[in-house]
Structures are given as C-alpha cells and as structure tokens.
Amino acid sequence: MATYRFAATVEEWCKDVIEAQEAIFREASQRLVHELDDLITQLIYSDPSTDYRRTGFLRASLVASTTAMPGLTKPNPGVPVQADYGDVILTINGLEIGETLYLGYTAKYGAYVHYGTSKMRPRPWVQMVAQRWETIVEEEAAKVRSRFGL
Predict the structure, then answer these.
(1) Taking the CB of residue 55, how many other CB atoms lie within 10 A of it?
(2) What are the C-alpha distances in Å from 104 to residues 32, 51, 60, 76, 130?
(3) Whole-Å CA distances, 57 to 17, 33, 75
C-alpha cells in the first residue's frame, strides 16, 4: 500500500484545481464562440427574409484579442468569405487565468445588423449569446469538474 504525504496530496489537488480553472475558462470561451457562430448563422445567414447579400463576411470577421476590443473597421469585400476561427481559438488557448478576452466583429456594418436600422430589423445575436455567459460557464464547469474528479 502506498503512503501519501499530506503536502503532496494538497499540492496535486491545487495543481488539478488550477488546471481545471484554466480548462473552464478556455472551454467556456470556445463555447461562446460556437454559440455566436450558431446564432449568427441562424438569425442572419439562414433567414430567407433578409434581403441583403450574404457574403459571410460579418460571420468571418470575428476576432479575439487580449489587449483591446476589436473595432468595426473592415469594409465588406463584396465576395464570399469563409469563416475560420483558428486564430480565435489559438488566442483563447493561449489565455491565462486573469487575462481579459475581447471578442468582437470587425465588419463595419456589424452594428447595423445587430441593432437594426430604419429599413432592417435588429438581429442582436451578440447580446443574446452574451446573456448566456453565466450559464455557459456553469455548464462547462460541471463538465470539467466531472472530468477532473473534483
């Protein structure tokens, strides 16, 4: 039978807790990105009632940063664009506990789609997903705690 030192047991538990906190933070952030993508697709790209061109640029303009909120600065190129969240996921996976993650769309017209105009109803996908942040964290925390045996 192996004997365990109390200090070693506590040290291992603390290591697991820190790793679990990092996993919750990263996995909840990744899930937020997936939910943003799902909802923008549902409300905008899959909605036949929208009459503007669907290039995919707004969806593809999601950016992650650890220094500042991305701005609405990029004009639509007018050609189809595929969303690739590789850089967003890399930024999330590089986060450390305590760092701030900024997720934002850079398409200049993003605010018009989100808040609407006199000619277009609002599609507030960012706000709708952001309101779910606490639930997302709680659900991901339950998964991580189970995985880590905490």
Answers:
(1) 16
(2) 12, 24, 11, 16, 12
(3) 39, 16, 9
Q: Number of C-alpha atoms within 13 angstroms, CB side, residue 44?
A: 27
| pLDDT tens sequence across 82-140 | 999 999 999 999 998 889 999 999 999 999 999 999 988 999 999 999 999 999 999 99
The structural domains of the chain, with segments of one domain joined by +, span 6-148
Provide φ and ψ at 107, rounded to 5°.
-65, 125
Residues with Cβ < 8 Å from 104, sequence gap 6 or more? 62, 63, 65, 69, 70, 71, 72
* Residue indicated by tokens 């007018």: 78
**DSSP SS3 for 25:** helix
124: tokens are: 């507030």
